[in-house]
Amino acid sequence: MNAFLEQFPDVFEALNEGFIQTLTIFIVTLLGALPLGLIISFGSMSKFKPLFAVTKTFVWIIRGTPLMLQLLIIYYGPGIILQENIWGQDEVGMLIATCVAFIINYACYFSEIFRGGIQGVPQGQQEAGQVLGLSKSQIFFKIKLLQMIKRIVPPMSNEIITLVKDTSLARVIGFIEVIYVGEQFLTGYKGISGIVWPLFFTGIYYLAFCEKKLSYFRS
Amino acid sequence: MAILEVKNIEKVFGKTEVLKDISFSLEKGEVLAIIGSSGSGKTTLLRCLNFLETATSGSIIVNGKTVFDKSIKLTDKIMRQNRLHFGMVFQNFNLFPQYTAFENVTLAPKLALKNGIETNKKSVEEIEKFGEELLETVGLSDKRDFYPCQLSGGQQQRVAIARALAMQPDILCFDEPTSALDPELTGEVLKVIKGLKGNDRTMIVVTHEMNFARSVADKVIFMADGVVEEMGPPEQVFGNPQSEKTKAFLANSLENI
Ligand SMILES: Nc1ncnc2c1ncn2[C@@H]1O[C@H](COP(=O)(O)OP(=O)(O)OP(=O)(O)O)[C@@H](O)[C@H]1O
Ligand SMILES: [Mg+2]
């Protein structure tokens, strides 16, 4: 029992550090991928054929390949081609590479959600606004926008929860996030009791975080 | 003077000619019923009148004023003003789901007031009072604060009628207003439309309900393949049709009843 309590501060501190990294990836990815996703969705709805084709193909490739592979390519790819690691060897370089890969990947998923929400509003809504003499901006802001948001939020919140869990993929390039830290304790040094706290905390962090997000986006 | 004159309207989609040289006129207070088989261009004609489609050629004159002519380029604002001569009730209602019945009815007049679009309602109070009156006209005062999803199809269509009336169009168009409804709900909507007749209200109703067309219309147009095949008072078109196509269509639709 004593061993448990002694280890508590250690485990807590290390896991906290891992959690901060997880949180950083999460927030940076959201901040980058949401606007980029919206821009990509405009590309995939474009009437300009070349732009449409390019965005569609890009989204298709990104959504069709695993994020882990993209992460490896983005982190090691430039090194192999340019014979030089553009990301640098340190933590910060890894974090940036991770965020770039996550932003690109999630922007593509988000773009499809945006497109579905925007195109999902029936044409009849636009026409009903038109025949009542509403201007284009009134039709967008007073009629269509809320209907788009209503279509976007549920799938988006699912995708965001997946993002929280996906952050653990960052370890493939050696980045220290919360699961990674937990695992090190697991395979660690202080015997069987070393397992308990990490399992407990990594679980709690994810649960608390995901559940909180969930309830917010539901309401 | 005719309130509406439609002259030589044509509409081409790609290579298909959907409307060919459509001309007719309506007097104030008249009800025009447009009948015809599927694909004959009835919806397209209403959409051209409401500027949801741009006619390929021809002109539309309301109260002596040309509101559409292919050769005249109109600014957005004038176009918005011009389309208000017409109101439209859609086959599938197209109510705004995030607004209550009352808000659906008053939204457009309020926005028009804000934008300085000319209507004869000069204040929010006036608009709201008129909105209440319109809901009463369609028999839905008690559903004032209901959302569209809480209303039956027939009630939704009646709200849609009130919403169209709120902008006080010179000519109100209906595109098969009852064909998306369960049979037992068509009656209430047709009754409301019948009740609107008179008071100098000019209406154009595209319908498959022959009995309704016969009893309400002052004038009937039978369309076939994008042309006005036959036009006249209901007694003539239904009772003594001249064209072979009209005869065949009427025989067919009687059979289906
Ligand atoms: N946007 C469009 N592009 C191409 N063709 C169209 C378009 N809209 C309508 N059409 C064609 O125009 C013709 C007339 O269509 P319209 O909808 O006006 O017929 P309708 O008389 O209203 O038929 P219904 O009784 O089935 O409603 C049809 O052949 C249709 O395929
Ligand atoms: Mg039609």
If you had to describe this structure to a student in words, what would you say it looks like?
The complex is a heterodimer of chains A (219) and B (257). By secondary structure, chain A is mainly α. Chain A has one domain (2-218): MetI-like (MetI-like fold, Orthogonal Bundle), CATH 1.10.3720.10. Chain A is 82% helix and 0% strand. Chain A has 8 helices and no strands. Chain B is an alpha/beta fold. Chain B folds into 2 domains: 4-85 and 170-255, Rossmann fold, CATH 3.40.50.300; 99-168, no CATH class. Chain B has a 6-stranded mixed β-sheet, sandwiched between helices. A 4-stranded antiparallel β-sheet of chain B has the order 2-1-4-5, covered by helices on one side. In chain B, helix 5 packs parallel to helix 6. Chains A and B meet through helix 5 and helix 6 of A and helix 2, strand 6 and helix 3 of B. The structure holds adenosine-5'-triphosphate and magnesium ion (MG). The site of magnesium ion (MG) has 4 residues of chain B, from helix 1.
